Amino acid sequence: MFQLLPGHIQPTGHRTRKSRLVTKDGHCNIEFGNIEYSNHFAFVVDFWTTFVEIRWRFVLLLFVTAFTGSWFVFSLLWYWIAKSNGDLTVQNQTEGHVRCIDNVNGLTTAFLYSLETQTTIGYGGRALTGHCAGTVALIIFQSLVGVFINCFMCGIILAKISLPKKRAKTVTFSNTAVICLKKGSLCLLIRVANLRKTLLIGSQIYGKLLKTTTTPDGETIILDQVDVDFTVDAGKDNLFFVCPLTLYHVINRSSPFYELTADTLPLQDFELVVFLDGTAESTSSSCQVRTSYIPQEIQWGYSFLPIISRTKTGKYRVDFSNFSKSVQVTTPHCVHCFETDVDQRNHNSYNKENHNNLLKLGIDNLGFQVIDIHDPVDVTKM
User: Fold this and answer.
1) Strand pairing partners for 261?
2) 97/129 Cα distance (integer angstroms)
3) What is the pLDDT of residues 142-193, one digit of tens each?
4) What percent of the chain has pLDDT over 90?
5) SS3 of 213, please?
6) Fewer CB within 10 Å, N side or C side of the chain?
7) Distances from the Cα of 223 to the Cαs of 21, 202, 210, 218, 300, in angstroms?
8) Alpha-carbon gap, residue 94 to 362, rounded angstroms
9) Short-list 74, 301, 38, 310, CA closest to 176
């Protein structure tokens, strides 16, 4: 049974407050509890990943603390050397006193000398005299520590800037999914677009249906995962992702949506998570884009509006104002209704074909046979 729906444009689906595992922008809504204290040291051992994944505010705090802290620690060492040698202003210096560091007379000047040494400023007012071996060893050690801190902090900042998550921000999914007829099958459709002109190489699309199920043994499985295959007209692997694509999942007997109807869909409790994996063409870094749809974000009996057109200059234009908009179309009320209607039409077509064959058989005389006569016929003339 088909629904004949009046054609009107459906606005972009609103976001519901229903809890979900994966948010619309791809973040996972999950937290870990009752973790043993010893397991926290695993984050310290894997310190590089920990520093890359922490928030920017903590990275900036680490940046400031690392440099100012090292300057201050080494300033205390320079101050201790100057005090041990009697170079401070408050100390009584004898005639002919040989200083270890020129113009380091207190803790403030020692801090300035430490900063100038580690940042290689070298104003010239404060410098080593070369008469103390300890100062030479300390300046070498501070220079090496300064280079290490520079490399480490630059690496963290560069790694955070070039995270694949940032590339994923320029790939977007439609706010809603739709269910309609496509190529003679009932399909679930979603849209995905790459906002950059650079391609995602080796793109693959797939989905997971998350729901709570109960096994025949009575065990309740929370967030049970079921595979949902998506494809485009050219296949599901190595997508040519130069323009927005409409991905579809055929709802057949092997589909987890086979038992759904237009009436029962809003009452379901599941979450459809869609993944897009690919490699950025410009950076060669792998990235994954995620989004999710709950039953209230799946529109039964709708189809997406076209968004690709061709301009007078021969260029292809994408209208993103209609990216998530849909229009009502004629759609079966359920998969069973669609299959019943198809079977009925096939049955009627088969009966009509048989009827035509019977009519043809009624006209032809099956008992009539054509034979060849090879004997000559005598003709008697009167």
Assistant:
1) 334
2) 12
3) 999 999 999 999 999 988 887 777 777 888 899 999 999 988 889 999 999 8
4) 27
5) strand
6) C
7) 9, 29, 5, 16, 24
8) 138
9) 301
